[in-house]
Design goal:
Layout (H helix, E strand, L loop, with lengths): L1 H7 L15 H10 L4 E5 L5 H14 L4 E5 L1 H5 L1 H6 L3 H4 L2 E3 L4 H12 L11 E5 L2 E5 L18 H15 L9 E4 L2 E2 L12 H6 L4 E2 L2 H14 L3 E4 L18 H11 L9 E4 L2 H11 L3 E9 L17 H13 L3 E7 L7 H17 L4 E7 L8 H9 L1 H6 L6 H12 L4 H21 L4 E3 L7 H16 L2
Parallel strand pairs: 1-2, 2-3, 6-9, 9-10, 10-11, 11-12, 12-13, 13-14
Antiparallel strand pairs: 3-4, 4-5, 7-8
Helix pairs in contact: 2-3, 3-19, 10-11, 12-13, 14-18
Amino acid sequence: MITYQERCFPGIDWRYMDLSHVSWTEVRAAIAADPPDVAALTVYTSTALWAFIVAAEIKRVNPRAVVVFGNDHAGILYRETLTGRYGSRLVDFVSTGNNGPFTMMGLLYALQGQLDLARVPSLAYRRHGGVVSQPAPSYPIDRRLLPDYRLIEPQLERYYDKAFEIWYAQHYHLKRMVTLPLDAGCTWGRRPGRRCKHCSIQGLTPKTTKVSAVVPVLEQVVGELGANVYAAGDSTFGFSRDQWSGEIGYLDELAQACAASPVLRGHRFMLAYGLVFEFLRSAELCKGFIRTWNVGLEAFDPKLLKGDSKGINKGPDRMYEALELARKLDYKLYASGIMGLPGTTKELLRSEVDNWLSLAETYRDSITTISVAAPGVIPGSRMYWDSFNSDPEVRAAHGEIIPARHLTELYIREHTDVELADVEAAIAEVGRGVISLGEEHGHMKFGGYMLGGKDEDEEAERAQLDALCASL
């Protein structure tokens, strides 16, 4: 957003704040010292309460401030956000879909009277007592600007480089990591029958950035900033000619361009996402510039994957075929999975733990991180909408703020023979094993997913939000 604003509105000041690194006291002081006219907040289910708290503080200090919510949670629940108990008072606009920069820049033009609001893509807002949602065309585009991290290099040095040093530095020659949205949405967009529920539910459309525009940015990131690149797309490894219909040659062009670049060809610098099938098709092509494969293995037992697997992994045989290929080609691995999928029994849960620990031991020289979590029953997941359609308790809890932990507990109880407590104990066992193996050799780390706070934490946060709203 900052890069776009520098291009479109070079005369307007901006401030970047990552609330995971700045205390609430500092945030309040910054808002009071220089109240924003427009505030854009990225909102996940696990951070929704805090997004509302920040929005309320901004509105308290500057009642005329325009508040924009975006990302998965708010974008999917745009109607609930704009009409909810808090959102109806605090949120003016919601960015939907995956057109964020175009939405935000268009909105800024509209707020300055330079563009008709009706022409801003992927935007939802209140009008005449109802909610207007303006979709964007669903076709691939390749005109996005990539972020210029020189604009926030002090923040990289102060916060992000330190985190990278702890988590990943042992696995990379370059000692920094930045995120570039090289692609978004999977390549199945023109064949809806083959789209996974993830992209279908969220309305994601295939997007890339032109290779001719990507390479200079990669050269700047690698050559000037000394950084690796997390390609934050939904299916990077799927954008090669050897996939599905063979119509998209994005990765082929990128591999050729990286090999031709004197700055890039000496480095394997990218962390990219890809399903098991996609990796098997693209691993040889990408071995010159992609260092780490971020793969959602989901589960080992095919019974747990039937009908539900985003990763279409087809069981452990193809999974291990891909892992062996990754080891042969010297890829690093960021492997993630889910415990507590429908059909889980105590015996299956035990076997999943054993399989994760076996995988960690076998591939610990290749693995940077293993991340295993319970099925997050959050908007945008297949689990949430399946539950919403079948369970009146989930429908009753539906709204601008979702009690994700409680809903996950219900989901596991309804669809498995275990409890969330059993799943969390299993995840903790995997975590202890991975950390122990990593300390012995290989620097492997363990990570998880936030479902949101415990009940008492969320109650305290909601009380804080209510107090702020009462002061408006």
